[in-house]
Amino acid sequence: MLGNFSYKNATKLYFGDDSLSYLNEELPKYGKNIQLIYGGGSIKRNGIYDQIVKILKDNGKNIIEDAGVMPNPTIEKLREGVKIARDNNVDLLLAVGGGSCCDYAKAVSVSVHCDEDPWDKYYIRFEEPTCEIVPVGCILTMAGTGSEMNAGSVITNHEQKLKIGHVFGEEVMPKFSILNPKFTFSLPKRQMVAGIYDIFNHICEQYFSGEDDNTSDYLAEALMKSLIHSSLIAIEDPEDYEARSNIMWTATWALNTLISRGKSTDWMVHMIGQSVGAYTDATHGMTLAAVSLPYYRYILPYGVKKFKRFAEEVWNVSSEGKTDEQVALEGLSAMEDWMKKIGVSLNISELGATEDMIDGITEGTIILEGGYKVLSKDEVREILKQSL
Amino acid sequence: MLGNFSYKNATKLYFGDDSLSYLNEELPKYGKNIQLIYGGGSIKRNGIYDQIVKILKDNGKNIIEDAGVMPNPTIEKLREGVKIARDNNVDLLLAVGGGSCCDYAKAVSVSVHCDEDPWDKYYIRFEEPTCEIVPVGCILTMAGTGSEMNAGSVITNHEQKLKIGHVFGEEVMPKFSILNPKFTFSLPKRQMVAGIYDIFNHICEQYFSGEDDNTSDYLAEALMKSLIHSSLIAIEDPEDYEARSNIMWTATWALNTLISRGKSTDWMVHMIGQSVGAYTDATHGMTLAAVSLPYYRYILPYGVKKFKRFAEEVWNVSSEGKTDEQVALEGLSAMEDWMKKIGVSLNISELGATEDMIDGITEGTIILEGGYKVLSKDEVREILKQSL
């Protein structure tokens, strides 16, 4: 735990198959006007929408509809949401869905009372909100992004071919999040799997960095092991409550800043994956999966010690009679086997990326420090070629 | 993650060797009158007191002294602290010390504006505060209890020979806690070790319960492994910053409710240990250590599966060619070896307990459910005899 850091995360979580009922405890804390944010309407088909609307009406709230949040929420949609909130004096932004809806709600929350256009202010200049922030609550129907207990918000600008995430301060975190594992049961398997890999990668990005001995790395390994274990149960039986609940809880703790405390982190897989996403509009978790192995195999020689620890602690690779590098590589092979078992995308071609996009995706990749090797643009291009 | 539960923990943590400077960020949020709570004066000898007083004065605060908080804070001292807070219209209770000071500050916080005597209301009837709660901030000088990020408060009544803990609601948690690992360097080794075992036991009490597959158990194992690893470094070199910082961080996360989410828990070692403490006034962590192994060996047959997992995951015990019970017992032997290495008390006689106290300690032990076996008073007596 080197360095100085702070930690505060005040989101109240309600977890379990009865957790929606706790919406009744939260609603009295807010005014009458509730902006109900959701995506393509699956919550109408599976009945979740009706349950929520009933609770809102029982609590005497006005419901302001804000449907159609897309998987990678766009700046145009964000501007639309801000207008809805302003026109209706919204008191609470209630996001129902996965990370896209939560990220979008947070982006709206910091933009309603802000005169400037949010894209330039928050996603290009990375400024902090100086205006009043409208409170956000989340009701999850998909586990993966961890957006329910963090201050991150990723917005896509198709015109500029950019998909950028801003991690705001703690005051932007949702006030409450409702996590009912059963709400994730009806999700198509491909979406479930993309979420699982998104979680896994969040943990990797915080784990594969730094050489100091750190409690955070032990916690990261615990989350990985629980996730791997439950994922293999969930792909056989997506309605296994215990497995889906562990996956949901793991998602939350993988990205609420806990496991990055006191250590450096490396978010390059997200940077490359998000740039792939900006070009292909492919599912976030799948873009991460498709570039992960080429990236990790590339940087492994610069961080052998940690990759060896990963192999031993997470994948039970025996080190007997092997070099450190062999052990480390076996860890990545075990990870690849697991990725194949759960069925994530292992290359960007199947996500719609083509050779002629490589330069553009490379250009759109933000280079961050923190990893075992700071990449050049040429190295990003090489990793992308290996991901094709 | 079975069952329904909620989680909220809004304590802001400042961690690191520069963390005290963040007191400057917190103080402006509170009024002028600061009740400065501390123990026997070691903070005056090591200079921490002077550093804090300077920051308080620089921020224009009135300092109201409340010294002399004893290792097991008594109800008499609590009544004294409440009077100090009332007489001085205190705006913030600033506890400087270990768990005793933090626990005491929380007990004062819920009692200042309450007409009833706190002992009966909070520690006998376990009622929740219905009055205004005075905010609490903590500056840790000892790692162990986790009191810096939870709502627990243990108070001792010598007259009634009772040491009782109340876990209050989230609104009683400290508003902020400052964790500087260097502030723990000057602690006598015996106190450091007692703190380490207190942490370990907190994790055990939440781990050795339930049979379901649960992310919380993976996190518990991670905390145990990091703690064991760092404890062995710290007993050789108490000024190893990395080891002491991991121990400090582990303490916080071992008892801020995270690793008990979605599972049952078993607090019987604390119940027996606290009763020993009420008779001997021995250091909390040492009382837990002295009764742990007799207790765990006694309940092992009722929870073999979990004790086997503990042996394999935490202590790397190989299961080859052994029965589950053999593996499980080897885990406890490995734990005993570690306890000997770090030097905790392994029997209650050396803490001052005598044969003739056994009946009284048994009587004072509160029996809780949640463990693999709900004990009878006769079983408690038997475990205490084995602990002598």
Walk me through this protein's architecture.
Two copies of one chain form a homodimer. Helices cover 47% and strands 12% of the residues of chain A. Chain A contains 15 helices and eight strands. Chain A has helices at residues 23-26, 42-45, 48-58, 75-87, 99-109, 118-124, 189-207, 215-236, 241-254, 268-280, 284-299, 304-315, 324-342, 358-364, 377-387, and strands spanning 5-15, 33-37, 62-66, 92-97, 136-140, 152-157, 162-167, 176-179. In chain A, the strands form two sheets. Chain A has a six-stranded parallel β-sheet, sandwiched between helices. In chain A, strand 6 and strand 7 (162-167) form a beta hairpin. Chain A is globular and about 70 Å long. The mean pLDDT of chain A is 96. Chains A and B meet through strand 1, helix 8 and helix 9 of A and strand 1, helix 8 and helix 9 of B.
Fraction of residues in H or I helices of chain A:
40-55%
Please, what is the average pLDDT of chain A?
96
Query: Quaternary status of these chains?
Result: homodimer
Gyration radius of chain A (Cα, Å) is 20 Å
Number of E-type strands of chain A: 8
Biggest sheet record of chain A: 6 strands, parallel
- How many helical stretches of chain A? 15
Approximate strand percentage of chain A: 5-15%
| N- and C-termini, Cα separation of chain A | 38 Å
Largest two-chain interface:
A-B, 46 and 46 residues
Uncertain segments of chain A = none
One letter per element, helices H and strands E, the order of chain A comes to: EHEHHEHEHHEEEEHHHHHHHHH
Described by the principal axes of the CA atoms, the overall outline of chain A is globular
Strand order of the largest sheet of chain A: 1-8-5-4-2-3
Overall structural class of chain A, as computed from helix and strand content, comes to alpha/beta
